[in-house]
Structures are given as structure tokens and as C-alpha cells.
């Protein structure tokens, strides 16, 4: 009788230990992707910033574009140009220059022509 109780107790303890170990293993593996995704987010953020700088530099280098009122935003290769320029030709030119930068997958050109006196 004592033997049966002892065996039942040992089996119960083994099941409990296995359950705890399994639960800990699952929670630690769940935590790993979140730390990976955090580092991936930081990497993509720095890549976006680098792309913004490259596009801005290309616009500044081009003689046909006045960059003083242009804001460049980038996210995963998609670039958005915002701001004002003196004329429509500069809007078109800025979009073409941005499309020519390595790493740019698309350009949303939201530039507008500034009215006289601005």
C-alpha cells in the first residue's frame, strides 16, 4: 500500500516538474522573438534615417531643386516629400531625383508650389 502511494507521489512530482519546465521553456522562447523584433525595429529605423539623409543629399546636390523648404521622410524604402518649392518644375525634378536614389522603392511627392511672397 505504501509502495503504491510512493509511486503515485513520485509520478505526480515528475508531472509537476515537467509542466513547470515546459511552461518556462515556452515563455522564454516567446520572449526571444520580441527581443529580435526590437533589434529589427532599431535597424529599420536607422536604415530609414540613412535613406532620408541620402535622398536629402541628392536633392541638395541637384542644381534644379531648392531644398530649403522640403522635408524628406522614409519608411522601408518608401519616401515622402513634403513642403513647398518655387515652381512646378522643381516638384517634378525633386520626385525624379528621389526615385534615382539607391534604396528608394517608391516616392510620394506631396510638394506644393509656394505662392509669391512666401
Structure notes:
The termini are far apart. The protein has 118 residues and is an alpha+beta fold. The chain has a 3-stranded mixed β-sheet with strand order 1-2-3. It has one domain: GMP Synthetase, Chain A, domain 3 (2-Layer Sandwich), CATH 3.30.300. It contains 2 helices and 3 strands. The longest helix has 60 residues.
Write the layout of secondary structure elements.
Elements: H1 2-61, E1 70-75, E2 78-85, H2 88-99, E3 106-113
Parallel strand pairs: 2-3
Antiparallel strand pairs: 1-2
Number of domains: 1
Number of helices: 2
Number of DSSP strand runs: 3
Q: In one word, what is the shape?
A: rod-shaped
- N-C termini distance: 97 Å
What is the name of the CATH class?
Answer: Alpha Beta
Radius of gyration: 29 Å
The CATH topology comes to: GMP Synthetase, Chain A, domain 3
Q: Percentage of helical residues?
A: 55-70%
User: At CATH's second level, what is the architecture?
Assistant: 2-Layer Sandwich
The structure class reads: alpha+beta
Into which percentage range does the β-strand content fall? 15-25%
Low confidence ranges:
28-32
Give the strand order of the largest sheet, numbering strands 1, 2, ... along the chain. 1-2-3
Average pLDDT = 84
Largest sheet: 3 strands, mixed
**SSE string:** HEEHE
Amino acid at each position: 500500500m505504501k509502495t503504491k502511494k510512493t509511486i503515485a507521489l513520485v509520478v505526480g512530482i515528475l508531472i509537476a516538474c515537467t509542466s513547470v519546465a515546459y511552461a518556462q521553456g515556452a515563455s522564454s522562447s516567446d520572449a526571444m522573438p520580441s527581443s529580435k523584433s526590437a533589434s529589427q525595429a532599431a535597424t529599420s529605423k536607422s536604415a530609414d534615417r540613412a535613406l532620408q539623409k541620402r535622398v536629402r543629399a541628392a536633392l541638395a546636390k541637384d542644381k534644379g531643386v531648392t531644398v530649403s523648404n522640403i522635408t524628406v521622410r522614409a519608411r522601408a524604402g518608401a519616401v515622402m516629400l513634403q513642403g513647398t518649392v518655387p515652381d512646378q518644375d522643381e516638384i517634378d525634378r525633386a520626385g525624379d531625383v528621389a526615385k534615382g536614389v539607391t534604396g528608394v522603392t517608391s516616392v510620394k511627392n506631396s510638394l506644393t508650389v509656394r505662392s509669391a511672397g512666401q
